[in-house]
Specification:
The structure holds 2 protein chains of 2 kinds. By secondary structure, chain A is mainly α. Chain A contains 12 helices and no strands. Chain A has one domain: MetI-like (MetI-like fold), CATH 1.10.3720. Chain A is globular, with a radius of gyration of 23 Å. Chain B has 2 domains: about 1-40; about 80-305, MetI-like fold (Orthogonal Bundle), CATH 1.10.3720.10. In chain B, a hairpin with a 4-residue loop joins strand 1 (about 55-60) and strand 2. The mean pLDDT of chain B is about 85. Classes of the chains: A mainly alpha, B mainly alpha. At the A-B interface, helix 1, helix 3, helix 4, helix 5 and helix 6 of A face helix 1, helix 2, helix 5, helix 6 and helix 8 of B.
């Protein structure tokens, strides 16, 4: 009896979730496979003739391959900013956990403030202009790295607590200086949490729209999200190409998810049990 | 006897002195420096500067002090103050819906259910998709005339609303899409919270004859409180400063009916009113801290009491 009930709920849940969560994705795929005129009808239907490959090559060729350039830009942005974020945040989280000092409450306060306070947009542009980094990729990279620091520091601090201090002491007795100790002993041991952070933050930075919009505006050196946003107004009559672009942009996070499912889940739920 | 104690005490004193010395050498404070410099330049300085610039008429090249005029303008012009109200509505609606639906889904997905793994990944996947992509997709799906949703509703003889194009539904429609996209995180956090509850509690309750609803009310609900706190805090922080989904779907329209503070900031920035835009930023800062600080203290205190 109970078994049958659970089967019924299960099947109902699968059906409802298929409609609510899968239909939008199937719609993206189907629209991306249609020709321009049938895509503009916005119907949820199979394409009369499949134009998937044609649409793909047309999107990639649009405006001398702006999509490809955007992918290169987004990749550079993501890789460099996440790398900076991880190393700097690991140093802070490590020190915060290991050393008892009067500085700690201050640092903790700033970390929490960085998590809660919304960044002040125009003053940031003012600062970037002052140091000549406005509308440049290095500027955007540093901004993205800074905005991600707080979250990473919290995860690192929690994880460093699980590494026994005896390891540090042994390394010091063996003559390791602070840099050797951190980079050769501690950092390799942080691998699990580093993978989590890299995956979560890479998806965040890759999908970020607001910061590139403010700090790296323009059409030429845009990121993928900005290109997609600009396409929305440029391709009003070409929904097939617009949705092909959405599909392309969805692939990297999807690949991340397939390979790092467990780490993403760990990163997103950290703090859920302890609060 | 007393001599040995003294020697030992002296030895201990020396050890503590030595550890604090080696502590300083092993864990040098300059490890804070690189992150601190970035934080200072790109976060702290702009945040503090925003208080000053919000009191000025500002063109990036020169500033003119005008006192609280930007703030007065913000709250007296309906197209600006509407953003203030909408931010609160949007933040609380999305976060409330994520708490209720996330908990319900998590309870469902931690029970013995067919297709559990499939359901978990399906619910989570929208979290990873580009917000702009989601916005464009739902603009198409919810098109008032040709959209899939209204076509289906029409087949059942229901006339669907205008969704993004109707001033009375635009904001709530965006909120609903936001919930669709972010529900996966809330559900995951709740699943982690529920899994951490010891099974013995449920067994004991069953022995005492508690039904499913009673078990949920008196075991699950109070014991997932830390997860609830995390979900509320995360979704409020995200919801109150939400910008990209609104910008990709309605752009604050129709008119300014779905504007929030973050979209007002962008519009004023585009129009060149940098001082006004920065005042919006300070207001957003005050709203977020005024809500988050007492709320997180309250949520954490409850936890300690238990």
């Amino acid at each position: 009896m109970r078994r049958a009930g659970s089967w019924a709920t299960g099947i109902a849940a699968v059906a409802v979730s298929a409609v609510v969560f899968l239909v939008p994705f199937v719609f993206i795929f189907l629209t991306a496979s249609k020709d321009a005129s049938s895509a503009s009808r916005l119907e949820f239907s199979l394409p009369e003739d499949w134009a998937f490959v044609e649409n793909l090559s047309e999107v990639l060729a649009t405006r001398d391959g702006i999509v490809v350039r955007a992918f290169v830009n987004s990749t550079v942005l993501t890789v460099v900013s996440v790398a900076i974020m991880v190393i700097l945040a690991a140093m802070v989280g490590y020190l915060l956990q290991r050393r008892q000092s009067r500085l700690n409450p201050v640092v903790n306060f700033f970390v929490l403030a960085g998590l809660i306070v919304p960044p002040a947009v125009v003053p940031t542009i003012w600062v970037l202009q002052g140091i000549g980094l406005f509308k440049t990729m290095p500027g955007l990279i540093l901004v993205e790295a800074t905005f991600g620091l707080s979250f990473c520091i919290l995860l690192f601090r929690a994880f460093v607590a699980t590494i026994p201090r005896e390891l540090d002491e042994a390394a010091v007795i063996d003559g390791a200086g602070p840099l050797r100790l951190f980079f050769a002993v501690i950092l390799p041991l942080l691998r699990p949490v580093i993978i989590t952070i890299v995956v979560v933050q890479a998806v965040n930075v890759f999908n970020d729209f607001t910061n590139p919009l403010y700090f790296l505006p323009g059409d030429e050196n845009a990121t993928v999200q900005l290109t997609l946003y600009n396409f929305q107004s440029q391709m009003v009559s070409q929904f097939n190409l617009l949705f092909m672009d959405i599909l392309l942009i969805t692939v990297p996070p999807l690949v991340m998810y397939i390979f790092f499912n467990r780490q993403i889940v760990a990163g997103m739920t950290s703090g859920a049990v302890k609060g | 006897m007393s001599a040995t104690t003294e020697v030992r005490a002296a030895g201990r004193r020396r050890t503590t002195a030595r550890t604090s010395l080696t502590q300083r050498a092993t864990y040098p404070s300059w490890f804070y420096l690189p992150a601190g410099v970035l934080y200072l330049i790109f976060f702290a300085v702009p945040t503090f500067a925003s208080f000053w610039f919000s009191l000025t008429r500002w063109t990036l090249f020169d500033t003119e002090f005008i006192g609280l005029e930007n703030y007065i303008q913000f709250f007296s012009e309906p197209q600006l103050s509407r953003g203030f109200v909408n931010t609160l509505v949007y933040g609380f609606v999305t976060s409330g819906a994520k708490v209720v639906l996330g908990l319900a889904l998590a309870v469902l997905l931690t029970s013995q259910l067919v297709g559990r793994g499939y359901l978990r990944s399906v619910v989570f996947f929208p979290v990873l998709v580009s917000t702009i992509g989601v916005g464009i997709t739902f603009t198409a799906l919810l098109d008032p005339f040709d959209g899939v949703v209204n076509t289906v509703l029409a087949a059942f003889g229901i006339e669907g609303p205008g969704w993004f194009t109707d001033p009375s539904t635009a904001l709530l429609t965006i909120a609903a899409v936001d919930v669709w996209k972010g529900l996966g995180i809330a559900t995951l956090i709740y699943i982690a919270g529920i899994v951490a509850i010891p099974q013995e509690y449920y067994e004991a309750a069953r022995v005492d004859g508690a039904g499913r609803w009673q078990q949920f009310r008196s075991i699950t609900l109070p014991l997932v409180q830390p997860a609830t706190a995390t979900v509320i805090i995360l979704s409020l922080i995200g919801g109150l400063r939400s910008f990209d989904l609104i910008w990709a779907t309605t752009g604050g329209g129709p008119g300014f009916t779905s504007d929030v503070i973050a979209s007002v900031i962008y519009k004023q920035y585009q129009a060149g009113f940098y001082g006004l835009s920065t005042a919006g930023n300070v207001i957003l800062f005050l709203v977020v801290t005024a809500i988050m600080v007492p709320l997180s203290m309250l949520l954490n205190r409850k936890e300690v009491e238990r």
